[in-house]
Amino acid sequence: MAEMRVPLERAVHRIRLCSVDELAPGEARRFDVEGLRLALIRIGDDYYAIGDRCSHEDFSLADGEVWSEEFEIECAKHGSTFDLRTGQPCSLPATKPVPVYDVRIEGTAVWVEVG
Q1: Which CATH code fits 23-114?
Q2: Which of 10, 82, 106, 110 is deepest in the core (most CB within 10 A)?
């Protein structure tokens, strides 16, 4: 009988980043937590978390401009934009995606799920 391999699920845990009122709509902020560098972005009442390193060059995405209508953030160094929902680059020179993380709001706290 053939051996059956089941993929292991990665353990997911949550990290509290801030309160909902600490980030204004259209604002991005960098968080360094548990060895991760994250950018938290607020558009309206929705929050998005992505890896804070531009995949083209190691530069903070939280320092860039938030394009609220497009759900994108622009890297301030070379102008690449990234989709906040998927992490995919939307413009050159970046060609590789950045990680995205699930965000949960509980009460007034903003939590990110990492794993």
Answers
A1: 2.102.10.10
A2: 82
Task: Give the pLDDT of the chain (115 residues) as one tens digit per residue.
Answer: 455 565 556 678 999 999 999 999 999 999 999 999 999 999 999 999 999 999 999 999 999 999 999 999 999 999 999 999 999 999 999 999 999 999 999 999 999 999 8
With a CB cutoff of 8 Å and minimum separation 6, the contacts of 55 are 80, 82, 89, 94, 95, 96, 97, 98
SS3 label, residue 88:
coil
Q: Which amino acid is at 108?
A: T
Strands (E), the chain: 13-19, 28-33, 36-43, 46-51, 66-67, 72-74, 81-83, 100-106, 109-114
In residues, how long is the chain?
Answer: 115
pTM of the complete model beyond 0.70: yes
